[in-house]
Design goal:
This protein has seven helices and eight strands, in the order H-E-E-H-H-E-E-E-H-E-H-E-E-H-H. The chain has helices at residues 4-7, 28-36, 52-62, 110-125, 139-147, 166-179, 183-191, and strands at 12-15, 18-22, 69-75, 78-89, 94-101, 129-135, 151-156, 159-164.
């Protein structure tokens, strides 16, 4: 069962023109189309076409876990992507993170803002380090890993596993926020992360 104290403040987050809300069954048809699109599927793990029934089983399995938070990303009122924190280990303060976008929104710059919101969620959950598994062919995600100081842990076939440690990640994210004149907004977002609605 979800720990309500942990969930409070992270079930629906709004910042600027972006909203993250926990995924529901109603979102699955949209997620299914995006995930199976030729622009997204080659970078998914695993790289297999998934059906609605498979997604429904998956969502029912994770829905009541306090170690997996799947979100639909909404930008200016339009659903545009999927973001998740999963395998959250509250003892060791580490989790996995991933996201993908509707083909229409790939490369539109929303990822940086999701990265900022992710920091607020991590703060709220008390999680320090992130693990990310990235295909060697996913140039945008590899660039993102370099941007936030990803440290290569291992290579398994065409999958690279990175760890993003809090101190290095925060330093780089704050530098990025300064470069795009969003530093004060980011600090405020992280500081009030428990009060987001």
């Amino acid at each position: 069962m979800i720990n309500e104290a942990r969930l409070k403040g992270i079930d629906s987050l709004e910042w600027l023109d972006i909203k993250l809300k926990l995924l529901t069954k109603e979102d699955l048809p949209t997620i299914c189309v995006w995930r199976n699109s030729p622009e997204v599927l080659p970078f998914m793990l695993p790289k297999v076409h998934v059906s609605m029934s498979v997604l429904l089983v998956w969502l029912n399995k994770i829905l009541n876990l306090d170690t997996w938070f799947p979100y639909i990303i909404i930008y200016k009122g339009q659903k545009c992507g999927y973001f998740e924190l999963k395998n959250i280990d509250y003892i060791n303060k580490i989790c996995e993170s991933g996201m993908f976008f509707s083909p229409k929104y790939i490369g539109c710059g929303i990822g940086s803002y999701i990265m900022f919101i992710r920091e607020a969620i991590l703060e709220r959950l008390g999680v320090d380090d992130l693990i990310s598994n990235v295909s060697i062919y996913n140039v945008k995600s590899l660039s993102h890993m370099r941007k936030i100081g990803g440290e290569l842990l291992r290579k398994n076939g065409d999958i690279l596993t990175f760890v993003n440690r809090k101190k290095e990640r925060r330093s780089r994210i704050f530098s990025l926020a300064k470069a795009i004149n969003m530093y004060d907004e980011l600090i405020n977002l992280i500081n009030i992360s428990g009060k987001l609605t």
